[in-house]
Amino acid sequence: MKEKTTLIGQATPEQIEAWKKKHGKLFGIVVDGHIAYLRKPTRPELSYAATVSQNNMLKSNEVLMKAMWLGGSEAIQAEDELFFGASARLADIIQVKEAELVNL
């Protein structure tokens, strides 16, 4: 039987439920044994990150991750390799619905 491993920064089931209740959908990004818990960004947060990205794409990812951050291993925000791995998954959280144009 496979042993269940604990990730660095892992939240309790109660904390995860509290976050879900407050923020709705919750995301976990696992990088090299560390976990970060993130919520979906708001429109103003995305707008600010887009403005920042015009001058510095890396800073844009930092701004977005800090805005979405709920908890987890602080090393993901502090260590470059972990941050790069996690920030590569941020775009997957921002889901865009398919729209249809209808002639009236």
| Mean pLDDT across all amino acids | 91
Helix-strand sequence = HEEHHEHHH
Number of helices: 6
Level-1 CATH class name: Alpha Beta
Radius of gyration, in Å, reads 16 Å
CATH fold-level label: rbstp2171
Helix content: 40-55%
Overall number of structural domains: 1
Categorize the overall geometry. Answer: globular
Poorly predicted ranges (pLDDT <50, ≥5 residues)? none
Total strand count, please? 3
Question: How is the main sheet built?
Answer: 3 strands, antiparallel
Strand arrangement across the biggest beta sheet? 1-2-3
SS-derived structural category: alpha+beta
Amino- and carboxy-terminal Cα gap = 61 Å
Proportion of β residues? 15-25%
Assign the CATH superfamily: rbstp2171
In CATH, the architecture is 2-Layer Sandwich
